[in-house]
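User: My collaborator sent over this chain with a note saying "see what the structure looks like." That's all I know about it. Can you take a look?
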Amino acid sequence: MQAITATGIYKRFGSEEVLSGVDLTLQPGEILGILGPSGAGKTTLVKCLLGTLGLDGGTILIEKTPMPNLRMMDRIGYMAQQDALYEDLTGLQNLIFYARLKGMDKRAAVAQAHALMKLVELDKDENKKVVNYSGGMKRRLSLTAALIGDPDVIVLDEPTVGIDPLLRELFWTEFDRLKALGRAIIVTTHVMDEAEKCDRLILIRGGSIIENGSPEALKAKTEKGTLEAAFIESARRSGKGGDAA
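Assistant: Without extra context I'll predict from the sequence alone. Here is the result:
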């Protein structure tokens, strides 16, 4: 069963077409990278998949359920580019709050919150208010918030922007662990070396998918054998010189 099947997604903001007939699939146990420059339409695509933005055309199924669907949202983990945290609460309180929103009982919520804080090395700071967290600490907490409730589908919108290499490595170790457990993961990025870590890549520019395949397959199509070359050559072939919102 496909974790996500999206067909013919169109999205407009006013007269501007931001997504132009995007097709996308995601399998359980797969990390799908959505690679493109800022403004290419990555975040709009993610929000459409989650059902937080309405479509102007196309269909989206998550585990065979048409989106948007509020019940399905409890089975999806989402990490936005901007940290969606309550700064007047502690890190632990934030996670417990999100767990309770997903319907977990208090004991299970507290237990998982403690475990996730330890996983991202925030256990010594779990009783510190988030307003006193550094930027990197907030990104770690945002990741754990996306993992609350053991979601089947995890959507991470540029999760490693602005964090140091050691923290990036910690994040990817966790992504690989979740993949091994059969979770379906989407990671948007504009960083080439990070895209190399994905099982499959969708290259997006100007609101359209210009290439789809494994990093190795995409690199093999170019003389230089790099993802950067694959992106540039695909953009030239497609004629997509502009970017969407």
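A starting point for your reply to your collaborator: Residues 49 and 60 are 6 Å apart (CA to CA).
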